[in-house]
Amino acid sequence: MVSYDIIVIGSGAAGLYCAHQLNKEGYKVVVVEADQRIGGRTRQDVDFTQWPIELGGEMIHGGDTLYYQLAKENNWGIFEVFSMELFSQNSKNTFFYLGRERKLISQDQVDDDMSMLFKALGSMKEDTQGMTQEQIGEMNLLELLVKKGVPYRVLGLADAVYSKTWGTNLDRIGIREAIREDEKPQAILKNYKIQQSSKALVDFLANGLEIKTNWRAKSVDYRDGGGVSVRSYNGKTITAKAAVVTVPLTILKENDINFVPALPQRKLDAINVIGMDAGMKIIAKFNKKFWRQDCQLVLCGDSPVPQIWMDGPPLRPLDKQKPAEFVVTGFITGDQAKSIASLSPAAQIKAFLNQLDSMFGNSQDWTPATNCFISHIVYDWCKNPFVRGAYSFPSIIPSSFKYKESPNQILSEFVDKKIFFAGEATATQYELSTINGALQTGLRAYHEIKENLPLTSIRDSKL
Ligand SMILES: Cc1cc2nc3c(=O)[nH]c(=O)nc-3n(C[C@H](O)[C@H](O)[C@H](O)COP(=O)(O)OP(=O)(O)OC[C@H]3O[C@@H](n4cnc5c(N)ncnc54)[C@H](O)[C@@H]3O)c2cc1C
Fold first, then answer.
1. How far is CA 199 from CA 67, 102, 203, 236, in A?
2. Which residues are CB-contacts of 67 (< 8 A; sequence separation ≥ 6)?
3. What range(s) does the Amine oxidase domain occupy (predicted)?
C-alpha cells in the first residue's frame, strides 16, 4: 500500500491551497474528495450564459488579500464590482430596498432611520462597553439593535445588509464574535470578480496534485504511534504521517467522519457552538437591462430575496454575434433560504420575478423582470450532500462554553501533531466564511506541518 506524508481531506480552497504548498515543498501529498468534482463551495455553470456563472463563492472580498494577489499574479482577469461600504462614495452602485414600503433607495437618499441602523452596525464595540465578555458572548444582534432603539421599519434591512451576508438571521449573530470579525484586517470592503471565474483558482492549485475524487472519508484513525490511517465509505484505506481535515463544519457536526480516538472535548464543544446555516442562489437571465445603469447591488429588507446583484455587459465582454444577456443573482441565506427552498421551482422563480418587478417596475412597464425573463437556475447548497449549508458565521457563545479562546480558534488547533484543521470555519487571523479566509487556513496548516513535521525528520523517522 502506498503511504503518503500527508492526506488532505477535502478539495475546497483550503485543502487545495494546503496541498499545493506542501507539494511544492516536497511532501508526498494526496487529496481525497467525497464529491466527483473538486472545488467544494466554488462551483460554476458554464452553459447558462456566455460567461461562467458562479453557483457558490463568487467575489474576492478585498484587494489586500491572498486571493486577490493570486488572481493578479496569474492574470485571471480581475474586475471591480460593487462595494459593501455603507455611506461611501465607493458604494455608489449599491442600493437599498425597503420591501414593505416598496422603496428603492440610493446611497444619497439614505434616511435618518437607515443612518441610525448603519451607525449601530458600526459601533457594536462601543455599544457593549461595560458589559462582561460573557454577556456580550450571549447577546445577539437583534437584541443589540432593539436595545439601541433602531426603528422596527429598518430591522429587515439590518438582516439583509448584515446577517444575510453572514449567511444567517439577525438573532443568530453573536455580538462578541461579530466584533472579533469586524476587527480582523480584511473586514471587506471592495469586491472583485474574476473573468475566468473561481475555477481559475481551483485549476491553478490542483495542477500537479494527486487527487482522489469520489473518495469520501469515513474514519480517521490516529491511535497508534505510527501515523494516521484514513478509511473511505467504500472500504479503501490510505495511510500517512498526518492528515489535514478541511471538510465543511456541517460534516463535522453531523459526524460523517469518525475520529479514533475521539477528538478532544474542547474541539467537540467548539464544533457544537459554531453555526452554519442554509444558503442558495437563484440566478435569472434577461434579454434587457431593466434596472438603472448604475445599479449593481441591492440589499433588500422585508423581501423574499435579501441580496441581489447584476452582471452582464459592460462588465462582461460578449460575443457581438450573439444576443446580449443580462443576469440578476439572488443570494439567499438563513431561514429565508429554507423558505424559498420549500417552494416549487415555478413558485421560486415567480417570487423572485415579482420582487424584481416591484423594485424596478414603473408606469412605462410595471413588470419589466417578468417581461424580459429568459430562464433561470437555482443552486441550493443544503442539497449538496458534502456541504449541506452556506458557511460558518459569528455565533452566539453560550455561558456553558467555558473556554477563553473563540470556538473557531479551538477548531483550528491541531491534535497530537497528526490531525491538522483548515477550512473557512477555522479562520482566526483572517475573515471567516470566505474563499480568502479558507486559503489563509490552508496556508496556516501548511506552516504548522512544516514546523511540526519537517520533511527531513519525517523522511528519516520510521513512522
Ligand atoms: C452561495 C455561496 C456564495 C458564496 N459567496 C462567496 C463570495 O462571493 N466570496 C467568498 O469569498 N466566499 C463566498 N462563499 C464562501 C466560500 O465559497 C467558502 O467559504 C469557501 O469556498 C470554503 O472553502 P473550504 O475549503 O473551507 O470548504 P469547501 O469548499 O466546502 O471544501 C470542503 C470539501 O470537503 C469535501 N468533503 C466533505 N465531506 C468529505 C468527506 N467525508 N471526505 C472527503 N471530502 C469531503 C466537500 O465535498 C468539499 O469539496 C460563498 C459560499 C456560498 C455557499
1. 13, 38, 6, 29
2. 13, 60, 201, 434, 435, 436, 439
3. 198-445
In the beta sheet, which residues pair with residue 283?
329, 377
Q: Is 427 in the pocket of ligand 1 (CB under 6 A)?
A: no
Ligand 1: does its nearest atom lie under 6 Å from the Cβ of 279? yes
**Rounded distance between C-alpha atoms, residue 118 and residue 437, angstroms:** 25
146: Cβ contacts below 8 Å, ≥ 6 apart: 155
Domain 3-41+197-276+392-460, CATH among 3.30.450.30, 3.30.750.24, 3.50.50.60, 3.10.290.10:
3.50.50.60
241: helix, strand or coil: strand
Confidence class for position 463, pLDDT limits 50, 70, 90: very low
Domain residue spans of the chain? 3-41+197-276+392-460, 44-68+79-83+277-383
Q: pLDDT tens digits for 95-120? A: 999 999 999 999 889 999 999 999 99
Say how many Å lie between the CA of residue 58 and the centre of ligand 1.
11
**CATH 3.90.660.10 corresponds to the domain 44-68+79-83+277-383:** yes
Among residues of the chain, what percentage have pLDDT more than 90?
89
